[in-house]
């Protein structure tokens, strides 16, 4: 049974399955954006990198802004809301999220305000999460509705961003012992050959490999068929970054003459949906139920 508890004194919503921790939604303004951490297997193994939240021996400590599971973009009305160098913007939870459980699905609903570096209001995001469990499988669905309440909003063309982003644990890095596969059949496994999955458009990508105790686990992220620019580009790398980015064409296609920025007119809205399936085994076909969940999501 799945359960969720809001802990406003810690700015967290804690999700458990049969009494064991699955994940925490952390929305405190000590970070530049809300994120999920930790994200755990049914047996309690970490499925995302711990740093910068915790120091774990053997983990890479590059890219301070890669906090487990999150949403961000590096060029919004010209401002950087991706990394945390000087002059960056922020995405901040407005008040407390609304949480609950309906039909064995945990929900988290809230409003995220996107700000420029001087506190300029850029856009309003209505974000919904739905989390469920089925045996060892875990499913997290995200729906983000971007509302241009304060004027036009331009999502600039840059690879530095992702509307659904994961940093996998170092043990799972595909340049070492992990594996990346996409819906087109392209695979990058254990550092062999070229990173052919990077910058490709695909309906889904699976990133799998060993967790700390040696067990094989994976993440499958699905780009919903109704999303703008489906199938999305993927900024997915052997060093552990795994992100769906529909706004990075000129980098991914290595053509600086391209500009596939997207502008949302004042007063308009735009919705993106993604599904994360956490599964045991190496590769999407290690667990037959995963493809069924992919198909069910695309049909929803």
* SS-based class: mainly beta
Strand content: 35-45%
User: Helix content range of the residues, please?
Assistant: under 10%
CATH structural architecture: Distorted Sandwich
Task: Enumerate the spans where pLDDT stays under 50 for 5 or more consecutive residues.
Answer: none
Shape: globular
Number of domains: 1
What series of H and E elements makes up the topology?
Answer: EEEEEEEEEEEEEEEEEEEHEEH
Classified by CATH, the class is Mainly Beta
Please state the CA-atom Rg, rounded to the nearest Å. 18 Å
Query: What is the number of helical segments per DSSP (H or I, 4+ residues)?
Result: 2
- How many beta-strand runs? 21
CATH fold naming:
Beta-galactosidase, Chain A, domain 5
Tell me, rounded to a whole number, the average pLDDT. 97
Largest sheet properties: 10 strands, antiparallel
CA distance, first residue to last residue: 23 Å
Task: Describe this entry's structure for a reader.
By secondary structure, this protein is mainly β. It has one domain: Distorted Sandwich (Beta-galactosidase, Chain A, domain 5). Helices cover 5% and strands 45% of the residues. It has 2 helices and 21 strands. It has helices spanning 249-252, 289-298, and strands at 2-7, 12-17, 20-26, 35-39, 69-76, 79-81, 90-93, 98-102, 105-115, 121-134, 137-147, 153-155, 161-167, 179-182, 187-189, 204-210, 216-223, 234-236, 241-244, 262-264, 269-280. The strands form 3 sheets. Strands 7, 8, 9, 10, 11, 14, 15, 16, 17 and 21 form a 10-stranded antiparallel beta sheet that branches. Strands 1, 2, 3, 4, 5, 6, 13, 18 and 19 form a 9-stranded antiparallel beta sheet that branches. A hairpin with a 2-residue loop joins strand 8 (98-102) and strand 9. The longest helix has 10 residues, at 289-298. The model has no long low-confidence stretch (mean pLDDT 97).
């Amino acid at each position: 049974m799945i359960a969720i508890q809001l802990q406003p004194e810690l700015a967290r919503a804690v999700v458990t399955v049969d009494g064991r921790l699955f994940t925490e939604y952390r929305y405190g303004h000590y970070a530049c954006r809300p994120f999920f951490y930790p994200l755990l297997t049914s047996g309690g193994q970490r499925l995302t990198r711990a740093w910068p939240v915790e120091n774990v021996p053997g983990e890479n400590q590059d890219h301070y802004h890669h906090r487990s599971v999150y949403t961000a973009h590096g060029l919004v009305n010209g401002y950087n809301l991706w990394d945390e160098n000087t002059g960056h913007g922020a995405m901040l939870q407005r008040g407390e999220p609304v949480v609950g459980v309906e039909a064995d699905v945990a929900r988290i609903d809230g409003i995220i305000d996107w700000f420029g570096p001087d506190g300029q209001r850029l856009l309003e995001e209505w974000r919904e999460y739905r989390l469920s469990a089925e045996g060892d499988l875990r499913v997290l669905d995200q729906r983000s509705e971007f509302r241009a309440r304060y004027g036009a909003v331009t999502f600039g063309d840059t690879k530095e961003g992702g509307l659904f982003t994961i940093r996998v644990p170092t043990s799972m890095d595909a340049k070492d012992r992990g594996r990346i596969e996409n819906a087109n059949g392209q695979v990058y496994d254990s550092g062999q050959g070229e990173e052919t999955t990077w910058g490709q458009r695909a309906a889904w990508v699976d990133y799998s490999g060993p967790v700390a105790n040696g067990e094989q686990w994976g993440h499958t992220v699905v780009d919903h068929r109704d999303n703008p620019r489906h199938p999305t580009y993927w900024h997915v790398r052997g060093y552990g970054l795994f992100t769906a980015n529909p706004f990075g064409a000129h980098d991914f296609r290595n053509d600086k003459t391209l500009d596939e920025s997207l502008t949302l007119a004042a007063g308009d809205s735009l919705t993106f949906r993604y599904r994360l399936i956490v599964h045991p085994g190496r590769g999407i076909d290690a667990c037959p139920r995963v493809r069924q969940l992919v198909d069910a999501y695309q049909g929803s």
